[in-house]
Amino acid sequence: MYCFTPISDMFETTGSVVIQIELAGVGKEDINIELTHNYIEVSGIKRHEGLSGEESFQRMERPFGVFKRTFNLPKAVSRDSISASFKEGLLEIVILKKEKDDSFTLTSIDIK
Fold it and tell me: Where are the domains of the chain?
């Protein structure tokens, strides 16, 4: 089965990390997003619909089939605050950053 890699952008704002992936022609129900350790994985399938199977292509540039992208997340993100939206073929995943803890605590370590 053919596998392709959709194009994407990943950027940081003052309060979040944003991932945008172009998935034109992909149904929302065909997209999976999974979070594991410090990675977020986006996978799914882009179906090649509307063809009878009798076509003889002269040119085929649009990718179809299974896709998968894995993104390494910075440690400063909150794993509990991830949202995703899908509009006009653009998947956007927003991960909020952890609030900084500016307090300093001193822990004494006994030497043995």
Answer: 3-97
